[in-house]
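Worked problem 6 (solution included).
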Amino acid sequence: MPHVVQFSVAGFGLAFESDMPLFEARARYARFASRGRPALRVRLAHTLTPRSLPVAGAEGVAGAALPRVERLPGGRVRLCRNTFTCDVDPRAGRGSAKVVPGIIGLDGLARMLLAHFLPPRRAVLVHGASVAPLGAATGGGARGGAPAAGGALFVGVSGAGKSTLARKAGPERTLNDELSALILRPARVRPMLMVAGTPFAGEMADSGRDRTVPLRALCFLHQGRRVSARPLALAEAYRRLLSCILYFSPRADDAQRVADLVAEMLAALPSPPLLVTSARGTPFASIAAAIHRAGAS
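Solution. The predicted structure is:
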């Protein structure tokens, strides 16, 4: 009987099954464990060396490390990297993969599967730290105030300060310090933008939380001497957000669909996107207060 680990991220159910015990995976995805029929079930075959993985189109070690997506006959998709290769039949909700043992290969496979199959479900993975609740809505700073509903997403490339900010916010309200999910949900009047945690933590290894909350503030991180928050033009926010979306398909039509989805997400924001500047030693309460003063709802 195969060993199965099943979990859900941003509403997408994913199941891995293997003849080998999946102890690391079970621990890694425990907070996101789910039941019922998953959207995708992947049968794993473990290989002892990355060299046995057929990475399509790779040239040399550097090329093999790059994620690649291929369209196969019959509507199937191949996703591969130097630690795994996976063929998926989306219509059947089934796939098969060769992956190196250990959590690194499996984690990379899970990220790539979600990055590819979330956009058709109106969701994307973003390089950003998510925090909920944001903090005081009025009278911010150390004096506190009324708690603000919903959460904030702090977007940034590697080294922008996502994990530093998440540590300031504290583990009790950090959904993730590295990779979060943005979800566009239909609503009666206008679509609602949600932010969700994922199990793919950065430096805060224990930061993944299976929570989904309304997004109240979309912030782009910038390092400086003084704390401030100022509105960004939508065109600039679009460029910055798109550059931090996790997506790998080389097809122009796929990329355009993701770009259109990002534009819809920005249009659904409840308040203007912000450029948030802070120093390493700036308390999180001061950052939250600056965000509220800049107009975040």
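Discussion: The chain has seven helices and 15 strands.
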